[in-house]
Amino acid sequence: MVVASKTNTSTRRTGEGAEQVRRLVSVIVLVNERAESLVELYEEYSAPLRTNGIDHEFIFVAQPWFSRLLEPVRSLARNGTPIRAVELAQPSTEATLVKVGAKVAQGDILVTLPSYRRVEASALPTLIEQVEAGVDLALARRWPRSDSWINRIQSRLFHALLGRLSGERLEDVACGVRAMRPELLDQITIYGDFYRFLPLFALREGYRVAEFDCPQHPKDRGRRIYSPGVYLRRMIDVLGLYFLLRFTDKPLRFFGLIGSVVCLAGAGILVVLLAQRLAGYGIADRPLLLLGVVLLVLGTQAVALGLMGEIIVHLHASGRRGYRLRSSAASTGHPDPRKDGSD
Amino acid sequence: MSELALSVVAPLFNEEENVRPFVAAVQAALEPGDDWELVLVDDGSRDGTAAAIEEMTRKDRRVRLIPLARNYGQTAALQAGLDHARGEVVVTLDGDLQNDPADIPRLIVKLDEGYDIVSGYRERRQDRWLTRKVPSWVANRLIRWITGVPIRDNGCALKAYRRDVVERLHLYSDLHRFITAVAAATAGARITEVPVRHHARQRGQSKYGLSRTLKVLVDLLTIKMIRTFRERPLVMFGLGATAAATLAVSFGVAALASLSFQTAKAQAFVFPSATLLWFELAGYLLMLGLIGEVALREVRQSSNEIPIVHEEP
C-alpha cells in the first residue's frame, strides 16, 4: 500500500510540472497517554487543513487501553470522514504506534500529533508548507509560551542537556507535533521511546530539520510535575541517546576510555601498595588493597564489554552503510549502490 | 553494460579550488584510454566543491559525483566511493593533489604482478616535520608491529585494489587509517607497496591535526583484537578469564599465608575478598565470551563471506 502511493507521487512530481500538485497529508494521532475526546481533537485539527484546501486523512493509532475512545472515531469513519482507527492488540511503545501509523498512511507528507493539544491547530498548515518547500522534518516549537514557569524551566534544562550531549541546537524536541517526508521513517531506525528524539537522529543522518514557531495551545498551559520515575526514565533515555549518537560504530571509544581510566587508578593503588610491601610494610590488612583490586576488575570489565561491542559492530559492518547520499541524488535512484557493479 | 577496467575514487571535503586541476591531472594520467571512470565523493563540503564537480561531470562523462548528505568523515566517504565504483580495479587517492595521479598506472602494473592491494609509499614526503612526519613515523611503526602487515606508510591514500577486495572491504568508524590491516584480516588480501610521489599542498586547507593519537591507539587495539579473535571471541575472553583466575589463586595463596602468620582482624577479609573479586572477573569474562558466541552466530549465518582465494595457474 505504502509502496504504491510512493511510485504514484514520483510520477506526479515528474509528470505534471507546472500544474498544481495535489498532495495527500496523513495526520497520525498517537493515542498513547493523556487522551481526551478524539472527535473534538479531529474537528479542531482538521479545520485549518480544510480551509487551506489540503487533502488529508487522519489515522488514530491507539494503545489497547484507549480502545473505548476509538469508538466515536470509528462511527465518524463509517460516515465517510477520511479517518482510520487502528488499535494495537497489545501494549507497545510510542515508536511502534508511529510505525503502525506510517504503514497505514498513504500520504506524501506525514504529520504526527500527540493525542493532547500542544499547539494551536494553525500549526499544521505551517509545518506542511515547510515540508513542501523542501524541509525533511519540520518541528513545531511552542512559542510564544504562556505556560507555567515550572514547565519552562524543566524544558530549558532538558534541552540544554540534549544540546550539550548531541551538539545540535533544538529548543522544543518534546513538542511532538511534526511534519515529515515518509522516507524519514524508513531510513531512521526508531524504537522504544526514541521517537521523541527522531529530530536528533535525522540531523545526524544529514536530513534538513528545522523548528518553526507555533502558538501554544491554551490546554498545554497546565503545570506539569511528573513522578520521579518519569524523570529517571527520561534521563536513561538521554544516556542511551548519547551513546547511540556518538558511539554506535565505535563502542570501544566509550567503554575503553572509562575502563582504562578506572584500571589506571586501580593499578596505581596496587603499585603504591607493592612499593610499601617491598619497603617492609604489611599490606594484608589494608582495605586500600581491596579498592585497588575492585577498580582493576571494574575497568577490565568495561574494556572487555567494549571489545565485545566492537566485534559485534565489525561483523555487522557488511550490512550497514555509514553514510547517506544527498536526497536529490537518492531520488534519482540507486537504492543499493553495491549492486551497481554487477549489472 | 560494458565492464569498466578502472575506477579512480577520491573523497573531497572543501576542496573547491582543487577540483578542476585534480580532474585535469587524472585525465592527463589516463588519457588515451576510455574505459575508466573518476568517482568524486563530495563529503558534505560547505564550499562550492559539489558545484565544481558537477560542472566537470557535464564536460566529461567519465567523471561522476557522489554527493553525501553531510560531512561524514574520510572513512565513510571512502566507503561511499568504493560502493559506487564499478571498475575491475579501483584506485583511491586524496583529492587535494598531494598524491600525483600520474602514479596510477604504476600501481596498476604492480597489481597485475599478482597482488590484491598495492599501497603507495610516499618517498619524499612534503609535509611539516614535527606535526606530521614524526607522529606518522611512530604510528606506522606501531601499526606495522601490532597488525603484522608490512606496510611502511599507512597514511598514504593512494592505493589500488582488485574488485575482490573492494567487495569484501567494509569500512566504518575511522578505519581508513588501517585499510591494509583490515583487508589482510578479513579478506586475506596479498599486499605490497610501491614508492609514489608526494607534493606539498598548493591550495586549500589541510584537514588533519595532531590530536588523533589516542583514537589511533584505541583503533589499533580494536584491529588487533578483531584480527586475532573475530572467529572465536570466546578464546579471547577465555584467555582473559584464565589470567583473572590465576590472580585469584595467587591472592588466595597470599590470604592463606597471611592468615596463618598474623592475627590482625582486617586480614580476615582483605585478601579473601580480593580473591573473590578476581574470581568474579574470571566468571564475568567467561560469560561475556559465551554471550558473544551466541550473538555472533546469527551474523555469521547471514554473512557468507569467504576470503579471497588465489588459484595459481
Give the helices and strands, then pairings.
The complex is a heterodimer of chains A (343) and B (313).
Chain A: H1 2-15, E1 24-31, H2 38-51, E2 55-62, H3 67-78, E3 83-87, H4 94-104, E4 109-114, H5 123-132, E5 137-142, H6 149-166, E6 178-180, H7 183-187, H8 198-204, E7 209-214, H9 228-247, H10 251-278, H11 287-316, H12 327-331
Parallel strand pairs in A: 1-2, 1-4, 2-3, 5-7
Antiparallel strand pairs in A: 4-6, 5-6
Helix pairs in contact in A: 10-11
Chain B: E1 6-12, H1 16-30, E2 36-42, H2 49-59, E3 63-67, H3 74-84, E4 89-92, H4 104-112, E5 117-122, H5 129-147, E6 159-162, H6 163-168, H7 179-186, E7 191-196, H8 213-229, H9 233-261, H10 270-302
Parallel strand pairs in B: 1-2, 1-4, 2-3, 5-7
Antiparallel strand pairs in B: 4-6, 5-6
Helix pairs in contact in B: 1-2, 5-8, 7-8, 9-10
Q: Can you characterise this structure?
A:
The complex is a heterodimer of chains A (343) and B (313). By secondary structure, chain A is of the alpha/beta class. Chain A contains twelve helices and seven strands. Chain A folds into two domains: 20-247, Spore Coat Polysaccharide Biosynthesis Protein SpsA, Chain A (Alpha-Beta Complex); 251-315. By secondary structure, chain B is of the alpha/beta class. A seven-stranded mixed β-sheet of chain B has the order 3-2-1-4-6-5-7, sandwiched between helices. The longest helix of chain B has 33 residues, at 270-302. Chain B starts with 5 loop residues before the first strand and ends in an 11-residue tail after the last helix. The model of chain B has no long low-confidence stretch (mean pLDDT 86). At the A-B interface, helix 10, helix 11 and helix 12 of A face strand 3, helix 3, helix 8, helix 9 and helix 10 of B.
Key structural traits:
heterodimer, A: 343 residues, alpha/beta, Spore Coat Polysaccharide Biosynthesis Protein SpsA, Chain A, 2 domains, 12 helices, 7 strands, elongated, disordered N terminus, disordered C terminus, B: 313 residues, 7-stranded mixed β-sheet, 50% helix
